[in-house]
Amino acid sequence: MRAVVQRVSRASVQVGDRRVAQIGPGLCVLVGVSTHDGPRDARTMAEKLSGLRVLADAQGKMNLSLLESDGSMLVVSQFTLYADVHRGRRPGFAHAAPPGLAEPLLNEMVDQLRERGLDVVTGEFGAHMELDLVNDGPLTLVIETVDGRFV
User: What is the pLDDT of residues 38-49, one digit of tens each?
Assistant: First the structure.
């Protein structure tokens, strides 16, 4: 499972003319699921994301997690995080999980985040989405799990 995490002052997702999710300050997380991922990866990623200390404390230092702040999380499925561009000019997606595998694992990760007490909203799985965000910092991290361990 691969996640691109961005600290944001705001973020929203639109599908067509309909806004499906929006947050104020917090984290926008783009998540790709690979063909080799399983429930252990979803749990491991949720644990890491919920405790990630990248939000500012009263002194302006990156010292708080979402659990320790009023922030929210926007999670957006993005299979293109597993694009293979090694050969040719057109990306290949053989390593991206098919929807039948990806959607349940993404939902498992979101459920785990919510069970930890986080305010989590999501994009619409499989839809063509427009993502609007303001990256705060900028702060962007890439986190990846393989077999439930970080790489």
Answer: 999 999 999 999
Report helix, strand or coil for 137.
strand
Domain range enclosing 23: 2-150
Catalytic residue at 140?
no
Distance CA 56, CA 58 (A): 7
What domain count does the chain have?
Answer: 1
Q: Which of 6, 44, 78, 112 is catalytic?
A: 78
pLDDT score of 115 = 98
- The domain that holds 55 is classified in CATH as 3.50.80.10
pLDDT digits over 3-14, tens only?
A: 999 999 999 999
Which positions ≥6 away from 1 have C-beta within 8 Å?
Answer: 31, 32, 33, 34, 37, 41, 42, 44, 45, 105, 109, 144, 145
14 is catalytic: no
